[in-house]
Amino acid sequence: MKPLNFIHKIKKIKIDIRAYTLIFALLIIWLLFGSLTGGVFLSSRNFSNLLRQMTIVSFLSIGMTLVIITGNIDLSVGSMIGFISVIAAYLQAVMFPTFLPGLFPTLSVELLGILSTIITIIICLLLGLLIGICQGYIVAYGGVPAFIVTLGGMLVLRGGVLGVTRGKTIVPIEDSLRLIAQGYLSKNPGILIAVIAIIIIFLITLQSRTKKKQYGLEIKPLPYDLVVASVYSALVLGFVLIMNSYKGLQIPVLIMTIIAILFTYLTNNTRFGRYIYAVGGNREAARLSGINVQSVVLKTYALIGLLGGVAGIVLTGYVAAGTTSGGMNYELSAIGGCVMGGTSLMGGIGTVFGALMGTLLMTSLENGMSVMNMSVFWQYIVKGLILILAVYVDVTSRKNKSL
Amino acid sequence: MGGNNILKDECILRIESVTKDFPGIRALSNVSFKIKKGDIHGLCGENGAGKSTLVKILAGVYPHHTYEGKIYFNDKELKFTSSSIEEAIKEGIATVYQEPVLVPQMTVGENIFLGREPEDKGIINWSKLFSDTKKILKKYELNIPFFAKVSTLSVGQQQMVEIAKALVQEIKLLILDEPTSALNEAEVNYLMEILKNLKDNGVTCIYISHRLEEFFRITDNITVLRDGRVVDTVRTVDTSEEKVIAMMVGREMKKRFPVRNSKPGEKILEVKDLSVLAQRKMVIKNVSFDLRKGEILGIAGLMGSGRTELVTAIFGEYGKHVTGEIFLEGKPVKINSARDAMKYGISLVPEDRKKMGLVLIQEVFKNISLSNLRKFSNALSIDKYKELKECKKYADYLTIKTPSLFTITESLSGGNQQKVVIAKWLMSNPKILILDDPTRGIDVGTKYEIYNLINRLAENGVGIIMISSELEEILGMSDRITVMCEGECTGILDRKDATQERIMALASTTKRSHSYS
Are B339 and A214 in contact (CB < 8 Å)? Predict the structure, then answer.
C-alpha cells in the first residue's frame, strides 16, 4: 500500500461494468428478437412503441430506485397510479364537464378541455405527493416496516379504484390529456431539442475542465474529452433521427428523459442524493453523522408519490380512460426493473440509469414476445425466469469481486 | 534465530512461500514459517501487515487457488476448494474472531452445537446436547451458564462460547484473531487462563493481538509480519516488547505515548447531575464533570460501566431520556440529537467504526465528507471538486493509506478505516471531540499517529474526551481521568495521582461483584 498521493487521478469516465453488461444483454436481446421477427422488432415503428411502453413503468422504477436505495420498498405504486388514473378520468369525464362551463362561460370547448387537463394534472401530482407523504410518514416516523405499510397502501388504493369506478370504465378523456401519452413532437422541434442537448453536453464538458483546473486536479487531454462528448452527442442525434424516421419524438418519452436526467442529477450531485445512499448503506452511521434519516426516507416516498402522479397521468392518457385494472402489477415491473438494473434490495446501491436500462430490458422482452405472438402464459414464465437469472448473475459477479 | 529450534520439533503447520495478491496490493509476499505442535504461537504486525489475510487463508475463506505457495497441516498439504470454512473445520482448524458471531436469541448450548446438533433420526436429542455442553464447559473450565441466552452474556463470555464452539469439533489448531480487543482487563486475564488450559490439553493456538503484553504472558513463539513479509520468528523468552515493536514498525519506538505540554484553558463543557434512563434502567446516575479547552479528559471503566452511554448521552443519543444540565462555554444547552450536538461543535468518533462510523460500501471520500457536505454544497448541488480537494487535505493530514479516495472503505485495514472516521469528524472543526475507544484493534504504529493527532488537536484548543479500554493508554494520554462504574462516576483523578491500581480500584467499586474478578 502506498500513501495517498494519487488522488489527482480523478475518476475516469465512470466505468460501471454492471451497466455495460446490461447494455450488452439488451443488444443481444434486440438482435435475437430482430432475427426472430424478421426485422419487425427492430423497425423504427416498433422501437418507438417499445419506448412508449416503458415510460409508465420507468417513472415508477426511477422513484423506486430511491426508495430501495434507502433500504425500503414501495409495493403500493401499481394501485397508486391506478387510483390516480381513475381520479383523473373521473375529474375529466364526470366532474369538470358539469361545472367548468358554468364557471367560465366565455371559454370555447377546446380551451375548456385544456383547462380541465391542466387542473387534472395539478390535482394528480398533488394526490400522488400526498399518498407518498402519508405512507412515507408512517414508514419513517411511525416505524412500521415499509413492506407492511405499502402492502396495506396497495390494498387501500386498489379499493379506492373500485370505489371510484364502481367496476366500470370511465370515459371520455380530453384530447389534450391523451396527447401527453400518445402525442408526437413534429420533426423540427425534435431536432431543435437534440441540438440544445448537444450544446449542453459540450458546455458541461468544458465547465468540468475549468473546475478541475481551478482545483488543481488532473485533466484529460482536450481531444479525449471532446471525443467523449461527441460520442454522446452522436447518440442523442441518432436517437432523434430514428424517432423522426417514424412519427417523431414521443411526448411521454421526452418526459421520461427529462425526469431521468433530473433524478440522475438529484442522486449524484445533491446532498439529498448523497444522504439516500448513506442511509441505505449504514443507517446508524448516517444518523450519527448528523443526517436526519427520517426526513430523508419521507422525502423518497414523497418523490415516488410525485412520480406516481406523473405515471398516473400518462396511464390515463395512454388508455384514454380510467379502468379498474389500471396499474395492476406495475409495482412488480418497477421493482424488477430496478433490481435488474443493479439496485440492491439490501440498500445503499443502485442508479437511476441502471433502473431505466432494467426497465427497458423488461419492456423489450414483453414487446418482443408479443411481436412474436407468443402466448401470454409463456411471456410471464420467460419474464420471471429472466428476472431471476439476471439477479443471479449480478449476485455471483459481486461475490467474485469481493474475493 | 528461534526458527531453528522449531525445526527440530514436530510441526503442526508449515507455511511455505505463500503469496497473496489483491487488486493493486500484495497482501502477503513469500511468507514462510512453522508452528510447533502444542504451542501458542503469536502472530503480530501492524494493520495491513497481512495477519488477517493469512488467517483467512488458514481458515479456508480464501481457497487454495486464490494464493500461491503451500501450506502443510500435519504434513498434509491444505487445498481448500471453496471459500466456506467447513473444509477447514473438517481438517481441524477453527477460528475465533474479534467479534463473536453467534445467534443472540439462542442459548449457549444451542450455539455451541449449531449445525451439529446431536440427533436421533432427525430429532434433536436435547438432553445429550445439554449434557455435552456441560461436559465441554467443565473440561476447559469455561465459566458460562450453558442455558443462558447469548444476548444476555458479556462480550467476554460470548468469546468463551466461541471457543467452546470450536472445541466441540475436536479441533487441532485454534486461531484467535484479536480475541481480546473487546474485552476488559478481568476478562483478558480469564481468557489467558483458558488458553493455558487449552495448551495443557494439547491444542495448538495461533494468537493474534494488538496488546503486546499478552504475547509475553502466553505465547511460546512470535512471528512478526510487516508489509506482507515475515520479519522473523522468535522465541518469546528471547525477546522483549521493545524488540517486537521495533520489528513491527521497522524502527525503534522509544515511547509509546508522545509528550505534550498541556495548558488547559477556560471551561468549555460542564456536565451537572447527568442521568440517563434507558429501557427502564438508570444507565447513568448523577454524573458531573467538566472539560477545559485543550484538555484531554480520559474516561476509564470496564465494558458496561456506562462510559459509552455517558458520552453518547452528551451527543444527544438518548434525547429526552436525559436529565441534568449541560453547559457549553457557560451557556445551558439542550442536545436532543446528533445534529444538535454537531451544531454546538461536538463530534463523536463512535465505539464501533463498522456499525456506527462508516458506510463501508461507499468510497473513502464520501465517508469523509458525509457529515460536512454543507461546506461545499448549496441546496442544488455539491461542488465535487472542492469536496475532493478538502477530503484529500484530511486524508493527507491523517496519512490514510488507501489506493485512492475512490476506494471502497471496506477494503481498507482497520486502522485506516478508523482514520477515515476521525477525518470525517475533524472536517467539522469540532470544539469538543469525543473519542470512544479510538485505538481499539489498531496497531502500535497507527496508535502512535492517532495519539500525536489527539495531542495536536488539544494544543489547538479542542477539548477532548477519550474513552479507552487500555489503562496504559488512559494513563499515557489524559490530563485528568474520570472513572466510571455501573453508571456512576466513582472518581476523578489528576494525571499525577493516577496509577493503574487506583483506576482499577475505582472501576470496580461496586455493590455487585464483577463476574470473574
Answer: no
In chain A, the residue whose alpha carbon lies closest to the alpha carbon of B352 is: A285
Interface probe for A, chosen from B385, B407, B418, B433 (most Cβ of A below 10 Å), is B385
User: What SS3 state is found at B255?
Assistant: coil
Residue A30: what are its φ and ψ, rounded to 5°?
A: -65, -45
Task: Write out chain A residues lying below 8 Å of B83, CB-based.
Answer: 403
Q: What is the three-class DSSP state of B232?
A: strand
Residue ranges of domains in chain A: 19-27+38-183+250-397, 184-249
CATH number attached to the domain at B267-507: 3.40.50.300
**Cα B52 to Cα B30: distance, rounded to the nearest angstrom:** 16
User: Measured between CA atoms, how close is B394 to chain A, in angstroms?
Assistant: 11
Residues of A in contact with B62 (CB under 8 A): 403
Residues from chain B that touch A281, judged by Cβ atoms under 8 A, are 359-362
* A285–B404 C-beta distance less than 8 A: no
φ and ψ of A202, to 5 deg: -70, -40
Q: What contacts B501, CB < 8 A, 6 or more positions away?
A: none
- Inspect the interface and report whether the beta carbons of A349 and B424 lie closer than 8 Å: no
ipTM score for this prediction: 0.85
> Superfamily assignment of B3-92+171-249 in CATH?
P-loop containing nucleotide triphosphate hydrolases (3.40.50.300)
Q: Would you say how long chain B is, in residues?
A: 517
**Comma-separated ranges of CATH 3.40.50.300 domains in chain B:** 3-92+171-249, 267-507
Which residue in the set B341, B389, B399 is minimally distant from A3, CB to CB?
B399
Q: Report helix, strand or coil for A46.
A: helix
**Contact B285/B487 with Cβ under 8 angstroms?**
yes
403 residues of chain A, pLDDT tens digit each:
444 444 434 344 444 565 677 888 889 999 999 999 988 999 989 999 999 999 999 999 999 999 999 999 999 999 999 999 999 999 999 999 888 888 888 888 889 999 999 999 999 999 999 999 999 999 999 999 999 999 999 999 999 999 999 989 998 999 999 999 999 988 889 999 999 999 999 999 998 888 888 877 778 888 888 999 999 999 999 999 989 988 889 999 999 999 999 999 999 999 999 999 999 999 999 999 999 999 999 999 999 999 999 999 999 999 999 999 999 999 999 999 999 888 988 899 999 999 999 999 999 999 999 999 999 999 989 989 988 888 887 777 766 554 3
Contacts 24+ apart (CB under 8 A), B81-84: B83/A403, B84/B60
